[in-house]
Amino acid sequence: MLAVDLGASGGRVMLGSFDGEKISVEELHRFSNDPVTLGGTMYWDFLRLFHEIRQGLLKSKQCGRADSISVDTWGVDFGLLDAKGYLLENLVHYRDGRVNGMLEKSFALLDPDRFYQITGTQFMEINTVFQLLYLAQNRKELLDRADCLLMMPDLFNYFLCGEKCCEYSAASTTQLLNAREKNWSKEVLEALGLPEKILLPVSPSGTALAPLRAEIAGELGIEPMLVVAGAGHDTQCAMAAVPTQEKDFIFISCGTWSLFGTELPEPVITGDSQRLNIANEGGAGGRISFLKNIIGLWLVQESRRQWMREGMQYSFGELEKLAEKEAPFRSLIDPDAPEFVPAGDVPERIREFCRRTGQPVPETPGQIVRCIDESLALKYRLTLDEIRECTGKDYPVIHMVGGGTQSGLLCQFTAGACARPVCAGPVEATVYGNLALQLMAAGQIGGLSEVRSVIAASEPVKRYEPRNAEAWEEASEWYRENIRRWEAMGTGSAEQAGVVPDRNRLLSPDG
């Protein structure tokens, strides 16, 4: 099997093999994902990404015939096709500024309480619905020309095999689905003036589509393979790959974004979940991921890019070692503050955040990364408490999967902040989930329980125990109090921001 895993900063084509007990994984092709800004608009370089997928297919020839392939990507972004199946324009990046102000404009058309009660989705201005609202109000002629909308993973699958599909997990990121009925909400579409005609029926995760296009197979000299719409949203691939048999568990899918939540049989749409802005996203087997989107390692990635622009070449490992040596709880931020969403000089934005909230200003790369990691861990703690409040359940262990598990410092901080052990791994959770869902589509594996047993046998996890419980609890209480003030004040003085935390009780450098 081939798994194409595309993230916001890079992509891979991975080879997977199943021996009846475990899945083995081998990297065939890795490439960067570099957005392109043209004429003031930020785009995904879709043509380059499709070329890189073809390069991965070409390299797969060395490994023999592949039976199937599936693509997973981030959520919310989409392409528009005309009646002949041609792409109408390149795909706009969710970080593009066209969505600014669309959230408030939607509330003038549809009561936000009703909006949430229908979709059960976390309000984020990057969501598909607000991108479409921009087009409806500013580029209606483009929507008029469109025959159908395909979410990012479905668009790649279409150009691979010629079959159009709207897979459930990707569709659930649009904020256009009725969360309980798992189909498009006519009420939302009509209220916002969005065309229903461009939306295909929602297909379940794990849908077998069609063989690879004959012209692609012929050009590359490979045998046709089945294209599978597994779980197109990468978070749901990672969710399927959490190696546990617990019925109630907390997971963090940690990469450019941190997706923090739990798995449920049905959506939770209540006053509390709405107040806390928690999303119900669709996953494999029709399950619901009850989660929050938190800005994750984007902050470290973008900081590193800034330092490279300034002539400082740090690896991620070097940055972590620098952070380990810095004093704990010196400065903290809200990772989800709006100024951290766009690309650019994140270190300077962090310094400015600390200035206006009356905290010591982090200057060195080590201080910046320590600030990010501690702030992420404390944001995880707040989210854990919110999930517990909504579900009424306790969760004794946190399962952390994805590339972020390579940061031992962040894993240890998370264990300390959340006062729970962290089971970290697999690193390649998204790829394992992608491959396992292809096996489900082929009838080689049964349900999610069997998927998780296979993945648990495929790669070990590392366990981190909480340390310095009292210091983390004090930091958590301070953070809980002040983050609300930060959200309310936007900008202001140190007095408005609250008292700087007591620094007399410090953690050891290793957390």
Tag the structure with descriptive keywords:
20 helices, 511 residues, alpha/beta
What does this structure look like?
- With 511 residues, the protein is an alpha/beta fold.
- The chain has 20 helices and 21 strands.
- The strands form 6 sheets. A 7-stranded mixed beta sheet has the order 17-18-16-15-19-20-21, with helices on both faces. A 6-stranded mixed beta sheet has the order 3-2-1-6-14-13, with helices on both faces.
- A hairpin with a 4-residue loop joins strand 10 (177-178) and strand 11 (183-184).
- Helix 12 (298-309) packs antiparallel against helix 15 (365-391).
- It is globular.
- The two termini are 40 Å apart.
Compact summary:
With 511 residues, the protein is an alpha/beta fold. The chain is built from 20 helices and 21 strands.
Strand content: 15-25%
How many helix segments? 20
Which regions have little confidence, pLDDT < 50, spanning 5+ residues?
491-511
Major beta sheet summary: 7 strands, mixed
Shape: globular
Quick check: average pLDDT?
A: 94
Q: Give the end-to-end Cα distance, rounded to a whole number of Å.
A: 40 Å
Spatial order of the strands forming the largest sheet:
17-18-16-15-19-20-21
Approximately how much helix is present in the residues? Answer: 25-40%
Number of strands: 21
Rounded to the nearest angstrom, the radius of gyration is 22 Å
Structural class: alpha/beta
